[in-house]
Amino acid sequence: AGPVESKNEAAMSELVPEPRQKPVVPMKPTGINASLLGYIGIDTIIEQMRKKTMKTGFDFNIMVVGQSGLGKSTLVNTLFKSQVSRKSSGWNREEKIPKTVEIKAIGHVIEEGGVKMKLTVIDTPGFGDQINNENCWEPIEKYINEQYEKFLKEEVNIARKKRIPDTRVHCCLYFISPTGHSLRPLDLEFMKHLSKVVNIIPVIAKADTMTLEEKTEFKQRVRKELEVNGIEFYPQKEFDEDLEDKTENDKIRQESMPFAVVGSDKEYQVNGKRVLGRKTPWGIIEVENLSHCEFALLRDFVIRTHLQDLKEVTHNIHYETYRAKRLNDNGGLPPMAVETEENHESNL
Amino acid sequence: LYPTLFPCQFSDSAGYVGFANLPNQVHRKSVKKGFEFTLMVVGESGLGKSTLINSLFLTDLYPERYIPGAAEKIERTVQIEASTVEIEERGVKLRLTVVDTPGYGDAINSQDCFKTIIQYIDNQFERYLHDESGLNRRHIIDNRVHCCFYFISPFGHGLKPLDVEFMKALHGKVNIVPVIAKADTLTLKERERLKRRVLDEISEHGIRIYQLPDADSDEDEEFKEQTRASIPFAVIGSNQLIEVKGKKIRGRLYPWGVVEVENPEHNDFLKLRTMLVTHMQDLQEVTQDLHYENFRSERLKRTGK
After folding, report:
1. Contact residues, A window 253-292, toward B, CB-based 8 Å cutoff
2. Is the residue at B136 inside a domain?
3. A335: pLDDT confidence band, cut at 50, 70 and 90?
4. A110·B56 Cβ contact <8 A
5. Domain assignment of residue B268, given as a range
6. Is A60 on the interface with B (CB under 8 A)?
7. Judged by CB atoms within 8 Å, which residues 49-78 of B form the interface with A?
8. Which residues neighbour A190 within 8 Å (Cβ) at sequence distance 6 or greater?
9. A321 CB near a chain B CB, below 8 Å?
10. For B97-138, what is each residue's pLDDT tens digit?
11. Is residue A197 part of a domain?
12. CATH code of the domain containing B288
C-alpha cells in the first residue's frame, strides 16, 4: 500500500537523479532557509560603511532665497554655528542693487565628531528686491540646472572621477516675510517653479515679530495656501518610502512646517547658561528655546535627521528628472561633452 | 581650498551642530535597504568548493546536489550556476549570490574553459552599464561579481598552467582571492612551502590578486599583517558536525584525529571568513571603481557610444 510504494519511488529517484536547474542569471532568493549555527559577522558591513563615510566626508549645498533683510545669513550662521555666510549690511550708496539676482556660493569645511562636511552656502542677493521682480527666479533655476548639467557631464565621461564633485543644491530655504497676512505673489511664483527642481523648505523669518497666536494662525494660512496652489515642499508626500517615513513626515508637514525661526549669532547669559539670542528691553529671545521659536526644529530636521534624505531626494529624484529630460531631448543619447582643457572624451 | 571651521567637539554643548550624526542617517537607510554581494568560486571538481561555501555562511546552498560521473564530464562545458540566499544577522540583511562554475578544468582539453566565465563577468558589467545609462535608474540591481575565490589544488607543486592562465585573464575583471583547498592533506611545513611557491609564481607572472587595504588607525595593524601574511589562505571545509570535548564543531574525522574547520591552528578558514566579511564593502568598492570603470571605459572607447 502506501509506505511500500513510496519506498520504491525513493529507490527509483536514486537511480535516475534529476539534473539540477541551471539558471544563467541569479535565481530568486531561496528564502531565509539559512539556519545559522553561529555568528558570521555580516553586520560588520554597517561599520565598514560608517568608516567610509567618516573617511571621505560629504558635501552639503544649501541655498537661501528671500528678500534682503529677512535674516538669511544670520540664520545659516546659526544653523552651522560658524560664520559660513557673510551678512550684507544692506545696500549703501556706493553699492548698487544688482540688476538681476546674483548667485554667490561660498564653501567651508566644518568638522564635528570626526565627520568632515564640505558645506556650501549659496546666497541669492537681489531676489525680490527690485521694483519689478518678474522672473527673478530664473537665474536661480538656471543655476540649479547648471549644477545638474555639470554632474551629468562628469557622469557620462569615459574616464570619470571616482567621486564626482557634487555641487547640486540639496536644500533651498525659502524665507517668508512675517507679514501675518498671507504669502506674497512672488513667494507663490517662486515656490511653484522651483519645487519641481529642488527641495524647498519654507521658513517664516524673523518670527519674533509675531505672538504665539499670530504665529499659529499665519502658519495655518501659509500651509493652506501652499496646498491650494499645489506646491510640494520638502518632504514631498510622494517620496515617503514607507509607513515609518510617512508617519514621521506627515507630522512635520501638517503641524511643524513652515518653521517659524529666529536667528542670532550673539550669546547671552540666561539662568546661568550661555544661549544664542536677541536681547530686547522686554526680554531675551532664546533661539534654541522651543517655546520661543522653532529654530531647533529646523536645525534638527535639516541637519540631524533629514540631511542624508535631502541629498538622496536630490540625487534620485530631481537629478534623475533632469537627466531623463536631457536624454529625451537628445534623442535618448547622453549629452555631448564640451572639449575641456583636460580633453575629456564623452561617450557620444 | 576651503577654510576649515570647528564649531565644537562635544555633543549637546552650545556649539554642537549635529551633523556628526550623518553616518547614522546613512546607516539607517542601508539597514533598511539591505546589501547585495556576489561571490564566484572557481576551481577543479572535487576541491571542496561547495563544502567550503556552506561552511563559510553556515548554510546549505546546495541541498539536492548531483555529482556527475567522469563519462558525463567529458562532454560537459563550463556551466555558470548562481544561487542566492538571504542571510540576516543582527538586523542586517545580506542577499548573497554564489556563482558556481562546475566543469571548470574538467575537460581533457581545458583550453577555453574560462571563456564562459569571462563572458559571464562581462555580461554582468554590460548589464550594469546598460542600466546605468538608461532612463529609469531607480532600481538598478548589482549582479556584478565582487569577489572570486580561486581554488588551488593542494596536490601539485604550486600553480598549474591553467591556474596561471585563468588568473592572468581575470585579474583585470574581478577581485581574485587565491585559496588552497583541502589543506588537511598537507603538513604545516608543506603548506608553508606551497604558499611561498604560489606567491612567487603569482609575482613572476605579474598576476594582480586582491590586496587588502592598509589598516585604519583604529584597526589592529598586527592582525591585518597576520591576515595578509597568510595569503593564499589554506582552508578546510566541512558539512559535518563532530563532537570534540563536549562541543559540536564542524570538522573532519580521521582515524588519527579530528581536523577542526574553525581552529586557527588547523587551517586559515577563520582568517578567510573574517577577511571576506570585513572587506565586503571594500571588495564592492574596488569592483565598482576599478574593474567596472575599466570595463566601461574600454567599452565606450570601442563602440564610440
Report:
1. 267, 273-276
2. yes
3. low
4. no
5. 34-61+74-304
6. yes
7. 56-60, 64-66
8. A65, A137, A140, A174
9. no
10. 999 888 888 777 777 778 889 999 999 999 999 999 888 888
11. yes
12. 3.40.50.300
Of B210, B229, B217, the residue nearest B280 (C-alpha): B210
Give A-chain residues touching B138 at CB under 8 angstroms. 316, 320
For residue A51, the one-letter residue type is K
Instruction: Check: CB of residue A154 under 8 Å from CB of residue A164.
Output: yes
**Using the beta-carbon criterion (under 8 Å), do A27 and B138 form an inter-chain contact?**
no
Provide the ipTM: 0.74
**Domain annotation covers residue B225:** yes
The verdict on residue A196 lying in a domain is: yes
- Please count the other Cβ atoms lying within 10 Å of the Cβ belonging to residue A258: 23
Contact A140, A104 (CB under 8 A): no
Q: Compute the distance between CA of residue B159 and CA of residue A103 in angstroms, rounded to an integer.
A: 63
Mean per-residue pLDDT, A304-321: 93
From chain A residues 69-88, the ones with a CB under 8 A of any chain B CB are: 79-84
Q: Quote the minimal CA–CA distance from A199 to chain B in Å.
A: 18
Asked if the model's pLDDT at residue A143 lies above 90, the reply is yes
Residues of chain B contacting A13 with CB distance shorter than 8 Å? none
The CA distance from B88 to A32, in Å, is 8
Residue A3 domain flag: no
HSE-up (13 A, CA, CB side) for residue B16: 14
Q: Tell whether B213 is within 8 A of chain A (Cβ).
A: no
Q: Look at residue A341 and tell me if it is in a domain.
A: no
Chain A contact for B138 (CB, 8 A cutoff): yes
CATH code where residue A81 lies: 3.40.50.300
d(CA B301, nearest CA chain A) in Å: 7
pTM over the 0.90 mark: no
